## 1
Amino acid sequence: MPLNPAKPVYAISLNLVGFTLKGQNLSSQGFNVRVFTISDLERVMHINAKCLPENYSSYFYRDLYTKYPDTFLVAEADGEIQGYIMCRIERGWSKRGKLSAARLAHVVSIAVMEKYRRRGIGKELIAQSMARARRIYDCDEGYLEVRVSNEPAVGLYTKLGYSKVKRNYGYYLDGEDAWVMAVNLDEF
Ligand code: ACO
Ligand code: ZN
């Protein structure tokens, strides 16, 4: 069949416009957030090992992905995954002082490769994951633990509306304390 270059080019440019205007995936800051798939596992484990002392078996990642796929996200830039977030959906007491049961989106781990920090990737990963936890898993609150010395992460969470609700003494294996920080998911 003879090629008709006009048609495909037209279709592609239309798609690009729609993609950019919607702004759902391709961010203007030059990164793209999407859901995790199993073929991303090796790279995500690599990022975790580079960025955090809390490391997990591949079973642990697979288990979280199988149970809560919609809040396990990755961020791509320069053709490679540079950040991830993974969550567990739990039922428990509100962490925010309300004497009521709640559906909680527990951020188990988030990290962004050092070279790609301070571009808004961490913020976007949390914002999208929490919005999905609210919409898809019907969660009321988000919460997480973070080392009290981890100023970048505490700064990020505070900026997104999380507040410190409790100090867990000696929470980490090396004896450091954790802040428990929580947020109402109506914010997302
Ligand atoms: N110092 C102070 N505030 C900071 C810093 C910093 N180094 N980094 C981010 N913030 C705050 C700022 O308010 C920032 O907004 P601004 O840049 O407009 O000032 C805001 O957070 C958003 O920053 P992002 O660019 O979205 O965050 P980034 O993509 O750099 O990722 C992260 C932040 C994930 C904490 C990154 O520093 C990282 O991977 N650190 C190592 C791993 C880690 O500590 N993960 C969290 C462990 S706790 C847990 O996983 C539940
Ligand atoms: Zn935790």
Note: Residues 36 and 69 are 7 Å apart (CA to CA).
## 2
Amino acid sequence: MTKFVYSFNEGKKEMKALLGGKGANLAEMTSLGLPIPRGFTITTEACDLFYKKGKIIDEEVLRQVKEKLKELEDVTGKKLGDKKKPLLVSVRSGAAVSMPGMMDTILNLGLNEETVEGLAKNTNNPRFAYDSYRRFIQMFGDVVMGVDHDLFEEVLHLRKEKKGVRYDYELTEEDLKEVINEYKKIILRETDKEFPFDCFEQLKMAIYAVFNSWNNPRAISYRRMNNIFGLLGTAVNVQEMVFGNMGDDSGTGVCFTRNPSTGQNKFYGEFLMNAQGEDVVAGIRTPDSIEKLAEKNPSVYKQLVEIGKKLEKHYKDMQDIEFTVEKGKLFILQTRNGKRTAMAAVKIAVDLVKEGLITKEEALLKVDPESLNQLLHKQLDSKSKREKKLIAKGLPASPGAAVGKVVFSAEKAFDMAQQGEKVVLVRTETSPEDIEGMHAAQGILTARGGMTSHAAVVARGMGKCCIVGCSDIKVSEREKVFEVGDLLIKEGEIISLDGSTGEVFLGEVNLVEPELSGDFGLLMSWADEVRKLKVRTNADTPKDAAQARKFGAEGIGLCRTEHMFFEETRIKAVREMILAETKEGREKALAKILPMQKNDFIELFEIMDGLPVTIRYLDPPLHEFLPKEEKDIQEIAKEMDVSVDVLKKKINDLHEFNPMLGHRGCRLGITYPEISEMQSRAVFEAAAELIKSGKKIIPEIMIPLVGNVKEFEHQKGIVDDVAKKVMKEQNVEIEYSVGTMIEVPRAALTADEIAKLAEFFSFGTNDLTQMTCGFSRDDAGKFLNQYVAMGIYERDPFQSLDKVGVGSLMKIAVEKGKKVRENMKMGICGEHGGDPSTIEFCHQIGLTYVSCSPYRVPIARLAAAQAAVKEKLLNK
Ligand code: PEP
Ligand code: MG
């Protein structure tokens, strides 16, 4: 027979999956001998069964509930529904992972017309008894019977008004009796049902409601937003009530053993006298700081602080504790590892090590890598945020904050920034041509696009605040306005973006500086000691490369050379190259680009100072470089000395129906070998120059979009030829390697053939995901949100690697590649390279490094360390 119900003295903290976090911790605290009101927990398996049976509480579960209830009645000497000695209980949810406030709770259960009298007599406090009854009907009516909460509040409010009082506790027994009568009428009117008299029926209905709340929309979206998957359901905790509403010697509160905002090791909390839990949440009365309790009742305060210390030592982490004081006696209702800001997380983890409570490795596991984002970028001040109007929400593509005047074109952004203005670039979507404007802007907001859209990738690379896919807004670049709801925002109006949450505010929100405290540096050094994966960066500009080095990057894993071609001075020559009819014409244009490209590489090599630099050859479809505006077309036609019509025809010829699968990647270098020749020359001449000046440079050349070893062979041939020539010309030896991206499924499947020639692999998981799942990187935003909401994919596969599908191809490629080259260097450079869960996977399949945008480097360092620590723990 499955055991569905556990008394608190039968569980322990390791049983979270079955008893939920709250149940497991109540059991643990019971065994520690702390003052815990007695009770029992109905398991998450019972919740699972409830759903499997079509939302019916199983008979066996009810039988076991009755059995445990009887035990509870025996130890308390009270009985549920008994006129003389009524037992009152709370019924509270609690899943394995804490989901604060998402599911339902019912307090004071077990009251009816008769038991309330018994409670009044036993406590010698009729006012308290009727206050509890009033609270119970209100909560039960709302949570279990579905009656609108406001209807009850209105009655209470009118009664207070009539009596000329401000607070609930100022109402008398008589007032409360009248309120209760009104409440019952409301319930009958709204539900056609009497408020249940039978107390076991009340309990059954409450259990039903808690199970049911597991799948309320709020809880579902909380789980989705926090990537909580694979849980069975919620547990239900039934616990003897203790009362904070028994008078001025009673109360309820919440405390943290350390400050959850700063991490400071100082007891922190709030307390409300003569109240029950929901009063704190409802915000009707402002709680006092916990120091007030120290004044009112020093011995209870002292006991609470001691229990806090004990729990912190026991759980080896900062605790968030709920407590109630009933007539001067302290009870603990809950403890859990407290939620905290990134700053607090880092400080607490480091302090716990210094205090000898945990090891460095345990400390590394205590900080969510993703949360480090908060520490690396300038932030919107949270107080200032609350004072401004939130107008829209999009995908938080790149964290940080941006405050500035709205502009609708990259040129305008650039011009205004030149004049010292702060601007936010707002567009339907961005294109590579916008790069300078994006650079100049404080932040970018687009109506369309997903997490790997152009705007998102580029902004993350720049460490620039960016919100994409903000479908709440409608942008008209032509009219220079965007619409959101019934607001019309014009060019020049100020908005503020929160890139960590995707929130868009109207007006200027204040900014606060990030603080890279000493604790942060210390924690990162511990991470570096244990991780196996190297962490490189995706960088194409000296600025990004320098930033990434500051964050600890150990080389460049991906330099997308095409981004170097968009600068004002270069784009013309690039266009000339593309539009040239002959090889000679192309070579002439490429000759103009060569010195600039060479210079790019010199700068990058110098900044990386001997660390590896992987240069990826030209990748995007050529039409991305082409002029679109009439005035640009005319200018180029003039420059090239051809007619506008001829130029337009050429542009038309280059049009592709499916450019992502078209003339791009190594296909460019194969059909126009002079492009790869120029790029090779730029790399080797740059290397030669630096080597001669005594620097150590080992370029890694990476060929994109290879699917067939012959493509690679062709391109490697060009690289080797040019290398030979340059070495001879310059009379210098250059060590280099040539490898490929694995981003076409065929490349993964034939990795053994490719590895015979390629010296390293780098998984381009953006394209590999696109081609494996068959989802366009640029258009999938339209349906992927729904896919994730429906659970077809747990997470957006462009953000977090689809381990089952794309990951399998990676495993095949690793295996096949290593069969041919045992110690082959393998990395990942798609956007996933900065995602903690993907990084763990990369560690597991034995990659050498991950490469990610500069601002994700610290996140990747910590995630790589966590992967190594977890593996160690697993092998123990
Ligand atoms: C990739 O496809 O994962 C990759 C890194 O290349 P890009 O995003 O430039 O196509
Ligand atoms: Mg790619």
Note: The mean pLDDT is 92.
